[in-house]
Design brief:
The structure holds three protein chains of three kinds. Chain A is α/β, with parallel strands linked by helices. Chain A is built from ten helices and twelve strands. In chain A, the strands form three sheets. In chain A, strands 8-9-10-5-11-12 form a six-stranded mixed beta sheet, sandwiched between helices. Chain B is 81% helix and 0% strand. The chains are: A alpha/beta, B mainly alpha, C alpha+beta. Chains in contact: A-B, A-C. The interface between A and C is medium-sized, with 32 and 24 residues. Chain C: Belongs to the binding-protein-dependent transport system permease family. CysTW subfamily. Chain C: It is found in: Cell inner membrane; Cell membrane. Chain C: It is a multi-pass membrane protein.
Chain lengths: 273, 242, 512
């Protein structure tokens, strides 16, 4: 069993969706509904994501978990067919508010994708990409941040001798950690991970999972995964989504040993509904 | 959520269904064997049949073998299937149950050894009434606990938990009367001590049956009620819990 | 090669068509290389005596079978006496055939080749008294060497002394300076004339086997060979020298002799200019279509139209170029900026600029389609990765998308170059010239003369092959030029392929 961290105050509830104390939550989603060209993808979702914890979204394909994750840093802005209702608040502030610049929001809420996507440049330049966009750093400072980010992503020792090499020369697992380092370099408050290990071998997967757990002290992590064992291994809280609805949201230990609802039970134990 | 005895046969993987089904079947077989051991040990005592007692003692090896076999199967399921939720609880309950059944088996062979000693000494049947009474009670508990396990029957399991209290008080009463025997007739001390051992073993069997019943509650409701005073258990709350 | 997978006629049919295609390609290249390269080989000369007692010297060529028997074509040269440098002879009439070592073939500045003997040398009109054959050859070689040095000195003098003063004179206003410059120019010109006089001193006396004599100024001699007396290395050397002159010199004798340097230069320059014009337009259009435009019905329509444009016959582009670029834009330019030169047009006639623009238009669809396909192959998560770091769409495009699509853009350029370098039809309408020995780049401001007409290898082939009076002389040149055109396209393509490979190697394969 996981060593349960000091749990944020959870209002004792018989409900299948636990209520995180607002003071301990980082992201707050309220009544969120989302549709692609009229087809609903998320319906009336309400939950709070606790600060400095790993929260996993699980559910079958098409349940809306990736859609939810992408909504958290407004990646849907690019798609004109997406319509949205409801609120998403980051540390109390509505992320769709007109005074929130989307670029600034995305720096605060970083995202790592399923397939490692390093840019066509050197390892160093990949990590420095976000810093250069912000500008204002001297080379010395930038070097320091790059090293810090690579160390945080547990990649420094593997690449410190070849920072000038193409990022595409790294292995898949290293590429994914590089992408995480690249995201860390801009010091986000939240890190969204969209199936970060689904394209990797088991050892690389374990390294990523270890990294996720070690990053908890610095930021809030939200993980979307198909792999229930992975959610069970790394997350503190797990939300089970089905058909665009939030079915059950509970501390991971509770959800994986004794789910409240039959739908959750059937999904995590691999039964036919 | 509530689970039933059918819950474990609805997996997408038929192989997994079969493995869990086998676990349950083997546990029931072991339970049946242990129950028979207890019954024969008590019969050997009451009828002074030392040959039967000997057989009970030797049969304990079979019980131990079954425990090892079922534990192996559980290990395999854990390693290969990484069960979650009710599946995980089933495997854990089975592992724990085999351990308790094995202890019941041990207690039965302890009774059989004492029965052999008493048969050899051949004197008196003081305390046999109490033994018969408590043994019947305890055997019913074991049977009910196994039935509850087989049927995922939470009501029956809670009944067993409460039954244990009755056994404990009967045991205290019996011990008190046996003490009286010893004080009245110091020559019977050796044989009465043996009977006291037997009663103690029966009381322990009751405790193990109680454990089995608690595992059923864990299995069905995901609630751990071990180390909880049965008087404080809110049965209705447990049954309502979804 | 692996064994053909699968049984049955389909596999054989497929493999057969591959083999046939390869065979045809190889045959094409072999034909071009064989015929083209053999043209420069110093083949042996023969002296023939016919049954009627007449004699002639010639280089034998191909044979043809007719009703009267086998006839052989001889290259006799000596056009001034024989009227034509070619002669068909019935093989049966040949009585004697010898290969005298002293037979020479002289490539002359005018009148084509001379075939015969060297009878003597003259200096300042006085015959030199050298009887010994070997000594005569040494003296001839000496004089040829001296002539080359004199020519070099004269050209240098023209380049360094005469031309700068001509230019300075054109710009100078001050009377005193003008007078001084004119004096200096006269002095330089006098020096040039003196050198030319020295060059004209030597003459070689040639005698044909029929007995005609000719005193030829050495200056008129481009090459003088005794093929029958040459060793194999000497022949190889002579072959290389002729091939090099073919590459490096301008054409002579109405394109039937001399080299193709202006055509090579024109072709390469045209393709480079075309690339410079088409690359930015094509790439920007593709980026707009794929990355920026709303992906609706209109975009789809535009895309389909662009793809269809690739199939429009090239002559149509030529007509468009003539109408719009040459007459429309060029005509207007002339009216606005070059009116003092009218009615002689500057931009209002075909030229390098209009030809490049027409070819750029012709290859634009290819570049757009290739670039678009490259852009479409870049996975969306690459773009999202940059956006998720707070990059704007422009930053994403510039720093992530375009670098990843570069190899595809280069592929588009390769295809465009391959298509453009081989186009002749539209060029005939918009600026190619039959003869333009002046290349469009020189030392004169503005150095690159976009309004000039230019020569082109493809058009040169067409012109030499079909518009020359001397078909027998033109044919080998057609082959050689065709081979050269293939080579030029190959080199242009290889350059682009190398560039693309280099780009790919920098970042490894595209991750999927």
């Amino acid at each position: 069993m996981l060593a349960q961290p000091d749990t944020p105050a959870v209002n004792a509830s018989r409900d299948a969706v636990i209520d995180i104390d607002p003071g301990a939550s980082c992201l707050e989603i309220q009544g969120l509904s989302l549709a692609y060209a009229g087809t609903p993808a998320l319906s009336d979702l309400t939950l709070r994501v606790p600060r400095h914890r790993v929260t996993a979204f699980i559910g079958p394909s098409g349940c809306g978990k990736s859609t939810l994750l992408r909504a958290l840093n407004r990646l849907h802005d690019l798609n004109e067919t997406v319509s949205r209702r409801g609120a998403i608040r980051l540390e109390g502030q509505e992320i769709h508010a007109p005074e929130v610049a989307v670029a600034e929001l995305r720096r605060r809420v970083g995202m790592v994708f399923q397939t490692p996507n390093p840019f066509p440049m050197s390892i160093y330049e990949n990590v420095a990409f976000g810093l250069r966009l912000q500008g204002g750093l001297r080379k010395r400072q930038r070097d320091e941040v790059v090293e810090w980010a690579l160390r945080s992503a547990a990649l420094w020792d593997e690449v410190k001798e070849r920072l000038g090499d193409s990022a595409w020369s790294l292995s898949g697992g290293q590429q994914q950690r590089l992408v995480i380092a690249r995201t860390l370099a801009v010091k986000p408050e939240v890190l969204l991970l969209d199936e970060p290990a689904s394209a990797l071998d088991p050892i690389s997967t374990l390294k990523i999972e270890e990294l996720i757990r070690s990053l908890k002290s610095q930021l809030t992590l939200v993980l979307v995964t198909h792999n229930m064992q992975q959610a069970a291994r790394v997350s503190d809280y797990t939300a089970f989504l089905h058909d665009g609805e939030l079915v059950e949201y509970a501390p991971t230990d509770a959800l994986f040993t004794n789910p409240r609802l039959a739908r959750t039970e059937n999904y995590i134990t691999g039964r036919m509904a | 959520m509530d689970i039933t005895s059918e819950t474990h046969s609805q997996h997408i993987s038929k192989q997994f269904n079969q493995e869990l089904e086998e676990l349950k079947t083997h546990l029931m077989a072991m339970g049946g064997l242990v129950e028979k051991q207890v019954q024969e040990a008590v019969t050997a005592l009451l009828e002074g049949d030392s040959r039967l007692a000997e057989r009970v003692r030797d049969n304990d090896n079979a019980v131990n073998d079954m425990q090892i076999k079922i534990d192996d199967e559980c290990t395999r399921v854990l390693a290969r299937r990484q069960p979650a939720a009710s599946d995980l609880r089933l495997v854990l309950a089975v592992i724990r149950a085999t351990s308790d059944l094995e202890r019941i088996g041990d207690e039965a062979s302890k009774i059989a050894r004492n029965a052999m000693a008493l048969a050899e000494a051949g004197n008196g049947s003081k305390g046999f009434i109490e033994v018969r009474h408590i043994s019947e009670h305890v055997r019913k508990m074991v049977r009910d606990a196994l039935t509850a396990f087989a049927r995922f029957d939470i009501d029956l399991a809670l009944e067993v938990v409460h039954e244990d209290e009755a056994v404990d008080s009967e045991y205290t009463t019996a011990m008190r009367s046996l003490m009286t025997f010893m004080m009245e007739d110091p020559r019977s001390i050796t044989s009465v001590l043996s009977v006291m051992w037997i009663l103690r073993a029966l009381e322990r069997i009751g405790d193990h049956a109680n454990n089995l019943a608690e595992y059923v509650v864990y299995l069905v409701k995901g609630l751990d009620i071990r180390h909880t005073d049965p008087d404080e258990l809110d049965d209705e709350a447990i049954k309502r819990r979804g | 090669m692996r064994r053909v997978r699968g049984e049955g006629p389909w596999a054989w049919l497929a493999a057969g068509s591959v083999a046939l295609s390869l065979l045809l390609l190889v045959a094409l290249l072999a034909l071009l290389a064989g015929r083209g390269l053999a043209h420069f080989w110093p083949g042996e000369l023969v002296q023939i005596e016919l049954d009627d007692g007449s004699r002639f010297a010639a280089r034998p060529g191909r044979e043809e079978r007719s009703a009267e028997g086998v006839e052989r074509l001889y290259h006799t040269g000596n056009r001034e006496w024989l009227g034509t440098p070619w002669r068909w002879v019935e093989v049966a009439r040949i009585v004697e055939q010898r290969r005298p070592a002293e037979l020479v073939i002289v490539e002359r500045r005018r009148w084509g080749d001379f075939i015969g003997r060297v009878a003597g040398l003259e200096e300042d009109g006085v015959a030199l008294d050298i009887d010994d054959e070997a000594a005569r050859w040494t003296a001839l070689d000496e004089r040829l060497g001296r002539l080359a040095r004199l020519r070099e000195a004269r050209d240098a003098l023209r380049q360094q002394e005469v031309m700068p003063r001509v230019r300075a004179l054109a710009a100078e206003q001050d009377v005193a300076s003008r007078a001084r410059l004119e004096d200096e120019l006269a002095a330089a010109n006098a020096e040039v004339l003196a050198l030319q006089a020295r060059m004209a001193r030597d003459r070689v006396v040639l005698e044909s086997v029929e007995g005609e004599r000719l005193a030829l100024p050495l200056e008129e001699v481009l090459a003088l060979q005794r093929p029958n007396a040459m060793s194999l290395p000497a022949k190889l050397g002579a072959w290389g020298e002729r091939a090099w002159r073919f590459l490096s010199e301008g054409p002579r004798a109405a394109n039937t002799a001399g080299g193709v340097w202006p055509a090579i230069f024109g072709t390469v320059l045209l393709v480079l200019l075309m690339s410079l014009l088409v690359a930015p337009f094509g790439v920007l259009a593709a980026i707009y279509l794929n990355e920026i435009a709303h992906q609706g019905r209109l975009t789809r329509l535009v895309r389909i139209s662009v793809r269809n444009l690739a199939g429009v016959p090239s002559i149509v582009y030529g007509v468009f170029g003539l109408g719009v670029f040459v007459y429309g834009i060029g005509g207007s330019l002339d009216e606005w900026f070059f009116s003092e030169q009218l009615p002689s047009p500057t931009f209002g006639t075909g030229g390098l600029l209009w030809a490049s623009l027409t070819l750029a238009l012709l290859t634009l669809p290819v570049v757009i389609v290739a670039t678009e396909e490259g852009l479409a192959r870049i996975p969306d998560h690459q773009r999202e990765g940059a956006l998720a770091l707070g990059a704007t769409r422009l930053e994403t495009l510039r720093r992530v998308v375009v670098p990843m699509a570069l190899p595809a853009m280069l592929t588009g350029m390769i295809l465009a170059v391959a298509r453009a370098a081989g186009e002749v039809a539209p060029l005939m309408l918009v600026g190619v010239a039959k003869l333009a020995p002046q290349v469009p780049v020189d030392g004169e401001f503005p150095f690159l003369h976009l309004e000039r007409k230019f020569m082109h290898l493809g058009y040169h082939i067409f012109d030499v092959g079909f518009h020359s009076g001397d078909v027998e002389a033109a044919l080998p040149l057609v082959y050689a030029t065709a081979l050269l055109l293939v080579m030029v396209i190959l080199v242009l393509n290889l350059t682009a392929i190398f560039l693309r490979h280099h780009l790919k190697a920098r970042h490894g394969a595209l991750p999927r």
